[in-house]
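Field reference: "sequence" (input) and "structure" (output). Example, ABC transporter substrate binding protein:
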Amino acid sequence: MTEHRTSLSRRQFLAAGAALGAGAIAAPHVSRAQEAATLRITGWGGKWGQVMSADVVPAFEKEFKCKVVTDTALPFLPKLQASPRSAPIYDVLHTNSNEQWAAVEMGLVEPKIDPKLVPNLADVYPFAISDKIVGVSIFTSAIGLGMRTDKGYPTPTSWKDLWDERYNGVRGGYVIPVNSLGQAFVPMCGMLYGKGPTDLDAAYAALEKVKPIKLVDFTGAMEKMLLSGEVGMCIIHDSGINRYYDDKPPTAFVAPKEGVLALEQVLTITPGSKVKELANAYVNYMLSPDVQKKLAQAVWYSPSNKMVKLDEPYASRLLTTPEKVASLIQVDWKWYNAHKDAIDSRVNRIFRA
């Protein structure tokens, strides 16, 4: 499962990290020999966590003769910020791109992965190591439109179809200050109705017009509303639709003609890690074709390694070709995070009612 909630503002996050204090969350003391063989990472729960703990992590531990300790208790960044820079609580941080940009700004993670130490970087799609990415994106989901197929709605072709008045009362979106899908929708509004993704005035005007809209803070809640028919059209990532493939519900994911927003799963390494060699080996391992295929087909994430060959129905539904990958629109999270407090304040006023 991917958790998309980001409940702290930039100022609140900085304050929270300071309040925790290094001593409150420091990892237990271990000897140098033990530390060298222990890799501390973050990760998701749900299906992702099940596959990782049952298969992926044990295989890595066996191959590299180490112990992997995974923290799945969100939020990660305040804990990392409060730990000593020379002895960080994590060696590898796995989270979404918006939080990785916040982490690199504070010097908590290294901005890039060294391709000399991670050979599988040579086989990733360009988006995975673009200038919009800190570290490396190991998977991505496509954010587009989800719809009910049993309500007589026409199949949408554009993001602008979300504003169609036929969806008044059954339109779904996210609480923007706390959800990265909602945040990504803001620059999309600027692209659709203004001069580009940084045109906030146009974005705010578009958000005013998209009302009425049912807002949730978590994608799991949106999935439930779409499955129940409470919403007929919504913003959602493709894995939130595809994970129910075997159940065959009357829902569909639509990739708008303007492109799909990227929801990246990103790995970074902490500067103070005492096990850098092991950390790089883990990143390389997560980019290996076998691991990429296993996880992609377990959780419906699109792999970053272009050498991966997925089985059906995954190959036809995920971003598995250069042409499909070219439809990805990556959010400039460095820019967004710099404006987040002002955006939060404005959208809270827009959707207050």
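The chain has a mean pLDDT of 92.
The first helix runs from residue 10 to 20.
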